[in-house]
Structure formats: C-alpha cells, structure tokens
C-alpha cells in the first residue's frame, strides 16, 4: 500500500469516525414512508432534469395526503420518545406567559394597540379614548375560532377615529377578508371585502371609505397554489357591497405589478407605490384628491417616478412638495424633496444626505423627519429639522392665485356634504431649498432594534418599540418637541437577563468580506467547543436581521445553548450594495457567509460540529438546504423551515414569480445554470451521510407551497446513507408563519428543541 493510499485510507477512517460522532452513533435509521418515484423529466434549455416526486406538489391528492399522514406519524413517534420533551414544553409555556404590547397608532385622539396577556392564541386589539381613558377591548380574534387559527392581519382607523377597517386571515393563508367595525360601539357593519392579498388599508379623510388591493376571484385550478397575477387597487365605500367598489388603478399590460395605496397625512394625495414582485426598486405614482373633505377618487393618476431604477418611499409632504426616501445615487439611502409641479430629477433637492449607516425607514413626527438607521445591524434613530420655516413656505406668494380644482372624470363620484372632514384649500409650496439638520438621537436602552415607529406630521407625540436578545419588546412614548422619553408598556418575563450577555463579532467570509454576527450566551461561558449552539440567518430580499427578543431563545439559553445570528449578504444591513452582493448570480456569497460563520464558531471554540445546529425559514430555509448539501460534514443538526427548495419551479406557484428579482428564473438560460448549481432539491447526492434533519412546513402555506419541502424531504430520505434521521414536521391549519396561534408556536418550539437535545446529545437543566 503506497503512501497516497495510506493517507487516503486514514482520512476516510477519520471522516467516518467524525460522522459517527456527529450522528450520535445511531444504531439504525428510521423506516421512512414509501414514496413512489415517478418518471417526470423536464427539459431546461436542452438539459434534462428529473423530478420524480412531482406528484407531491398536488397537496390535496389522496397519495400526498397519505404520505403526509405517514410522515407526521413517524415524526411524532420519534419526538415522543425524547424524555425531555414534556419538560421543555412546560418551560416554554412559562416563559411565553408574559404580557406583550404593540406600539399604539393614534387617530383623532384615540389610541389603538395590541395586547396579549401571555398565552392567548392571538393578540387582542384595544382602544383608549384619550391618554387618561381606560382601555377597552375593540376586537378579540380569539373569539373568531376555537383553535386560534383566525388571525387579525391588518388594521386602519378612519381619520375621525369612528371606524376601524381590519383584515382576517384563516389558517395562515395570505388571502384576507376585510371588515369594518364601529369603534364607538364595537360592532361590525355589514361590509365584507374578499380576495384581498398583499394589501394595505388607507382611509380618505372624509371618513367615507378606504383604498385596498386585491386579485380577481380565482375561477379555476387550486386557489391555494395558483399563480397570482393582475393585482388591482380599489376603493371601498363604507356600507356598500363589494360589487360596487371602484377600481382605482390596474395595469392589464403588466400582470406582475403590485399596487399599494396610501393617503398622505394631510388627506390631499393618494400615493401609489408600484412594485414588481419583491424587487426593492419601485415606481411612485399619485392621485391629487383635490380636497380631503370631498376627495375626487376619479382624478387622473400622475406618474411621478415612472422608472424601475431605485427604491422610492413616500415619507410625507409639505403642500405640493413630496419627501421621498431613496437609494437612487445613494446606496445607503438619502431623503429628497420633489416638487410635484416640477418633478424632473435634476430639480430634486437632497434634504438628508447619505451617510455611512444604512437608512432603513423614515417617518414624520411633529415638524421633524425621524430617520431609522442601521449601524452595524442595530438601530440608531435620528431627528432632523428643516433649517427653514416650512410652515411659512406653505402659504401662497403674495398675489399668487389659488389653482383651480381639477374636474373629476366622473362628477357623480364627488362626495356629498355629509362628510365629517373640513373643507381645506390646497396650498402650493416652493421646492425645499437647503436641507434638514440633525438635532438629536433617540436614547435607546442599548444595542438592539427599533421596530414599530408611529408618528404623524403635526403631532409631537410618537410611539416606538425597542427590543434586543435579552430585552423583551418594550413600548415607549416620546415627545419630539420636549425630548421626553417614557415607558408606555413594559413586559415582565420570568427569567434573569443579567446572567447572559450578547457580543457582536466580525468574521471573514470566503472572499475576504467582513460579516457581523451577534452571539448570545451565558456570561463566562467556557470556550471549549462543547456548547450546543444554534446558528440562525436569512440572507435575502434586502431584509435585515437585527436583535430581537424570543421566549423560545431564552429557553435555549437556559438549556445551556448559545444563540448566534449572522448578518449575511443579501440582507439590507449595509444598504443596496450588501443586498446586491447576495442576489441572482451572487447568491453563493450568502452560503459562503453562512459557512464561514459556522467555521468561526468552531474555530473560536464556542462549539464544534457535533454540537452545532443551524436554522432558517423561507429564504432562510433555502439557505439551510443549500449549505447542508454543500457542507454536510460541518453541522450536527439542521432545521430547514418552510424553505424554497425547488429553485427551478418556485416561480410557478402563488406569488413565487415575484421572487425572481432576487433569485432569477429557470426560464432564463443563464439564470437556470446558477440556480441548478445550488437548488437544494437538485443537489442532494445519493450515498451521502447528511446531518440529522428536521424540516418544517404547513399544509396551508400559500406563499412557499408545501410541495417544496415534501419533494425535498422525500429526496433526502431516499439519498441518506447513514442512520441520521431525516424527518419533517407538517403543521395543519397553518401557513407560512404570520398569525400562527401561541399554542402552535409553543408546540413547534418544543419539538424543535427536543430534536436538538437528542441529536446534539444535550443534558439540559430545565427550570
């Protein structure tokens, strides 16, 4: 035996020993349910690709239902054999049982906010009729279903605070149904609006109705999996049937466009954000409603910015000057003032310039612009005031005549004199000269995230929420004029955060890029490589992963675990360039960043392969599937959740076509080649020892349809070459994640951690 053969033999033996350690020396593999391999083959640009489990895409077929039931029986049997499962669920229930609050939004002196007493399946909407009034229940979604699977998705109060429009989602579906409730007596009106999806709700200031977005009712095929095309913007008048709703804007020539209508704070304009799938770039249109008290819905749509070259977000307006957040010629974001009377780009005025931190969002509060930045993936909120007296600028020049109101296209749609909003004459402004000056920064309790931030132009009272890994979400009231900052609602959780700490580190990815990661662990944790560690990430769609509190993660810390959050490229943590470095043909950077994070944790002896678990959901589920294929030797357990696993067919289902802006599409020959190279479903190699895997999906997921996970699991089970289990947990009456009831969240977390306790060989001390 020559030296090369000896080295190869020794390397193989060492690898097999490591695999045995990583797998926990399982003696026998689970007996997986039978899955018939079909003969389906597709041809992409001359290349044949087999899809033997295509039949699992039909989620309602008897064969698929039988397979789902068998998989759930196998998974339930496996998890029920874990002795710590009951104790884990008990501790999770204790930790989850704390009051939670949302930041209030305010209309006409009324405060609206959500509250959950702890274990309620859905949070309850409260209204408070003034700062000193006693809160009362306005809408309790827990009364709408016995099992908590009907969720309150969106809410919007009329300008006078009299009505609440709200949407309901059933079993986690993206489809929503709109209703209207009288805030005074807490009773619903007869209004019902159906087939609403990817929609906001925005009232006209006469309090007569609201704008919303919807698709046509599906007339054929599967209503859950059909591709969604031809979004439309409508106006609904309170008290009228949906059949009389007015179509405000649609584009029959653009099936992939999405529309969201938002009425400006002064009630003067309907601002229409026109997006194309999940592309962060968008167009910006508007309708001049002529007068808030008698809005002319039929006035023409004006294309303020009609090119798909950057992100444009309407923040507010001073008369005829719009303030817009954009990354046009500013990868980390800036705010510009655009006169709608002269909107040419060379006339735009930068009022808040780009700086080194990524501008995530902005709003108006009082006379200020409140800008929310990310500074190395944690929040920094800054206040900017104009150096000029804009209130004076809003007045017409001496001798300037008031512009005549436009005539509506259909005069019969002008509202009557019963409107509760005052008549206001619109005033023209000059383009804003100069800029805004930063005059302060919001005092935050520490490194963390500002989530909800609710302010309004002309109102000095602002509410915001703050959270971090060890800081439960707390709601604050802030006065932008006096700077007074006070707690509005603070929860109390049954754990001691002082025993733990969060550190931010920066590690080097494969191509030399520095990537940040948060690591939360018990103070003084021994860096000996023996700590069970859960690494989480997302890495896509310009979505920033920032510090946040989770009762489930607290349980993991108490069990001796370390929690790590990596801020991969593809997200928005550092602006446009960071996002673009992890999309389309550069998607591999995301996987390299994640693999480098795992290697860092092992190198620095936070953990080791047998103790390292990885988790991600949706686009993050794709991430876990891809890195599990690329580095099956690196991880001790994997948790791919509601993942996009078939990168060659995702665009054919529901809203999947919208993701092509980040992923590309197999319909394109060049994009097909790189998609095929990392698609989790298509890169599973038979005869490979994959780490223990527990996948998650839901039978009513109509965003990432469950067929993705079904086909992935069937393929992985068939390919698995060692006893490490490959299991799937298929939730019923549930969707992609939004609106999931508390009981299901606790059950899911208990199963997740039970699986990790077994596969990472943990001996936790449970409280």
Outline the structure in words.
- The strands form nine sheets. An eight-stranded mixed beta sheet has the order 32-33-35-34-36-37-38-39, with helices on both faces. Strands 3, 4, 5, 6 and 7 form a five-stranded antiparallel beta sheet that branches. Strands 8-9-10-11 form a four-stranded antiparallel beta sheet, with no helix packed on it.
- Helix content is 18%, strand content 32%.
- It is globular, with a radius of gyration of 27 Å.
- With 767 residues, it is an alpha+beta fold.
- The N terminus is likely disordered.
Main sheet specs:
8 strands, mixed
Number of helices: 12
Morphology = globular
The helix content is 10-25%
**Overall pLDDT score:** 89
Low-confidence runs:
1-26, 390-433
Strand order of the largest sheet: 32-33-35-34-36-37-38-39
Label the structural class.
alpha+beta
Terminal CA distance? 56 Å
According to DSSP, the number of beta strands is 39
Assembly state of the chains shown: single chain
List key phrases describing it.
767 residues, alpha+beta, five-stranded antiparallel sheet, 39 strands, globular, disordered N terminus
